[in-house]
Amino acid sequence: MTLPKPLFPIAGFPMIYHHVAALSKIPGMKEILLIGFFEPKIFESFLNDVKNEYNNINIRYLREYQALGTAGCLFHFRDEILRGNPSKFFVMNADICSSFPLNKMLEFHTAYPGALSTLLSTRVDKKDVHKYGCVVTDPNSPHQVLHFVEKPETFISDLISCGVYLFDSKIFDVIKLVIEEKRLKAVENGQESKEEKVRLEQDIVSYLGTQGQLITFTINPDTDFWNQIKTGSSVIPANRSYLQRFKKHESRRLSVSSPNAKVLEDLLKKQPSTLSQEPQLIQPVIIHPTATIHPGTKIGPNVMIGPNATVCKGTRIKDSIILDSVEISHDSCIINSVVGWGSKIGCWSRVEGSPEDAHHLNATYKGLKIPSATILGKEVNVSDEIVIRNCIVLPHKELKYSYHNEILM
Q1: Element (H, E) at 46
Q2: Is residue 296 within 8 Å of residue 314, measured between CB atoms?
Q3: Architecture of the domain whose range is 87-230
Q4: What are residue 158's phi and psi, to 5 degrees?
Q5: Where are the beta strands (DSSP E) in 199-336?
Q6: One Pfam family of this protein, by short name (predicted)?
Q7: Looking at the domain covering 238-264+278-408, what would its CATH class be?
């Protein structure tokens, strides 16, 4: 990874662009704050882009210089958050992808005036619940949260938190109370501490559940989606989910042909006279306007091709992310893969991963490599007639042999 995770491109846009786009659709949205540990200059270009697109919303980046925990960080920046006197505000984790039904969530929250917070939830397979924060609701009032347990060792519920919260501005009184209790306990244990490190889920959300001040809005899987983006492999289903949503609701974002009919002269000389003048696109596909795509290619579905990439004739690309300045030689095949910046794929080569559900896309399991998408790091060179299957390849590697189910360092 050569850039902050929140800026990794998915479906043609940085990961957190999709969060900003969803927030911008909320009536009356005035300000969006991005909070992180990264140097502010890293986000300058992104901020300029979203400010130009959403010029009616104040969008800023705040740097966290000390690990305070998510709730501690919110408390630290409470004056910034409350500056516009908001009655409510959303808190969203960056490493998730979703259709973000925020307006529905806001409307739902408004119907429960006694709640200090609404969390967005979804249901997952029982065998995966240990990976998430689990939500236990009242059987007689299914929206009322009784307990919240972060990554439980035993099964308690298949309803999990999506990492999206809507808080009443009074939540800062609760955070202050928790901080004071932590300090008091530290003093009692002879460990006087002035730390304000407070975890959002374990310290605040759990507390709200015990006080009857937490409710949950559950995603309808027929109309909305949600996935975590925790591993390199998980960007593949995230890319697919966003592209499929674009196809259904925002088809204007998709590429309809070779972006500007730009094909290198040396490629055209090799073009058979019977070849179509446009590549075959199976939607949804997003191709950057500066990419060079030979007419004799078949691309899609669920493909993103980044700036200045070159895709030569006879190439097949499916369910993949092709990043900036990648060169893919003729008659190659890329499936369920991420090809990193400046990488080169030789002719007649195959780079592929195994299509799996997002929840099972892990690099390792109990110390063993399991099938997943193939991830090529920055400036990886794959020689001609090579097969790379289910591999994670670190940057600047030269691959002259075929590899399967390996991590190449």
Answers
A1: helix 44-53
A2: yes
A3: Alpha-Beta Complex (3.90)
A4: -95, 5
A5: 214-218, 226-228, 280-281, 285-287, 292-293, 298-299, 303-305, 310-311, 316-318, 320-322, 327-328, 333-335
A6: NTP_transferase
A7: mainly beta
331-340: average pLDDT: 97
Half-sphere exposure of 309 (CA within 13 A, CB side): 27
Phi and psi at 345, nearest 5°, equal -110, 125
List, for residues 77-133, the tens digit of each pLDDT value. 999 999 989 999 999 999 999 999 999 999 999 999 889 999 999 999 999 999 999
Name the pTM for this structure.
Answer: 0.90
**Segments in 204-327 forming alpha helices (H):** 206-210, 235-249, 265-268
Residue 84 contacts residue 31 (beta carbons within 8 Å): yes
Q: What does the pLDDT read at residue 182?
A: 83
Condensed to tens digits (0 to 9), the pLDDT of residues 243-299 reads 999 999 999 889 876 544 444 443 444 443 333 567 899 999 999 999 999 989 999
370 pLDDT tier (thresholds 50, 70, 90): low
The Cα–Cα gap between 181 and 195 comes to 12
Pair of tokens at residue 128:
């995966």
| Residue 234 per-residue DSSP state | G
Domain boundaries, the chain: 1-65, 87-230, 238-264+278-408
Six-digit token pair at 316? 């097949």
Task: Give the containing element (helix H, strand E) for 20.
Answer: helix 17-24
